[in-house]
Amino acid sequence: MTITMVKKQLASGEPCKKCVQAEEMLKQRGLWDKVDNVVFAVEGEPDSAGMKLSERLDVSIAPLFIVERDGAETVFKSVIRFIKAEFPESRAVGKRPIDAGKLSPEQLSDLADEYQPKSPNKIIEWALRRYGTDCAIAFSGAEDVVLIDMAAKSGLPFSVFCLDTGRLHPETYRFIDRVREHYGIDIRMMAPLTEPLQAFVRKKGLFSFYEDGHPECCGVRKLEPLKRALAPQRAWVTGQRKDQSPATRGDIDVIGLDESHHNQAGQLIKCNPLANWTSQEVWEYIRDNDVPYNELHDQGFISIGCEPCTRASRPGEHERAARWWWELATQRECGLHSEALQSS
Q1: Percentage helix, strand, coil, to 5, in the chain?
Q2: Domains of the chain
């Protein structure tokens, strides 16, 4: 087997950012010495070795990995897919989850202060180095896939779950499968319990939330499945941002104790690595790193939930205004992140 990596070199002489990140990922996993050849696609120089190779393969992005085995070539356009396919057991060298005991209130306060100005990557790395697969990423939207991308690139073990309410858009279900395939990960789908859901629908019908609000429906379809998802975890990671909803999310910490939910270990840590990011920063990351996203975003949807409770956003409208749009702005949460809402 022969492995060739095509790296892009900008006209200025600088390497492309994604190529540097890919090389670092391989080094973290002790795989860099597995690459037999490195060729450069020099911007503006069609005769450079990398440009010729890319033209032959009809691929215009970098980095690019070509695996030649028994005369046949396999081309990978993503370093994550390359690693998953060729070295599925690899993990970051020297980065194993530690034996995580409980954190005192003082330790949590210090951690929140220490990591408040740090990058999302650093916050995720802290959580995964401490908890490993006992730290779960809650996956549903664009922000969450950014977190999955960062976690996958860290080389550290992690887990992912998704709340399947049974009322998601078809596009969302297709999106879930694309993410599963793109990163080669398992996604634990948490569905509502059958008997409570049947009792609720029998009593209230399928659209009662338009009349008496969404909390009861969300309680059956989201909150109870979330409790089951979090029960075995020591920590979880969410894509919450402060600017998503200043009325309900303006004071979230990057690391803190989750007092709204409980787990079997007696202490559940909640991390919000993107708390200080803006929507623009999220989408810049998605574009720069070729992160998959829900096709509904191309149809005017910004914040995406269940199909009956989400509409496309209107010009100039805040991103969460299209969620539960018939209710007050202060009530546009499902309760997943609010103790007050859960008890109301």
Answers
A1: 45, 15, 40
A2: 2-86 (3.40.30), 105-343 (3.40.50.620)
Whether the Cβ atoms of residue 275 and residue 240 lie closer than 8 Å to each other? yes
The pTM of this model reads 0.80
Q: What is the CA radius of gyration of the chain?
A: 22
Count CA atoms within 13 Å of residue 75 on its CB side: 14
Pairing of strands 72-76, 64-69: antiparallel
Tell me the per-residue pLDDT of 160-199, one tens digit each, with 9 for 90 and over: 999 999 999 999 999 999 999 888 889 999 999 999 999 9
Catalytic residues: 334
Rounded Cα distance, 258 and 24, in Å: 33
CA atoms within 13 A on the CB side of 212: 8
DSSP 8-state assignment for residue 5 = E
Residue from 70, 109, 50, 81 nearest 184 by CA? 81
Distance CA 260, CA 269 (A): 11
pLDDT digits (tens, 9 = 90+) for 245-278: 655 556 788 999 998 888 887 899 999 999 999 9
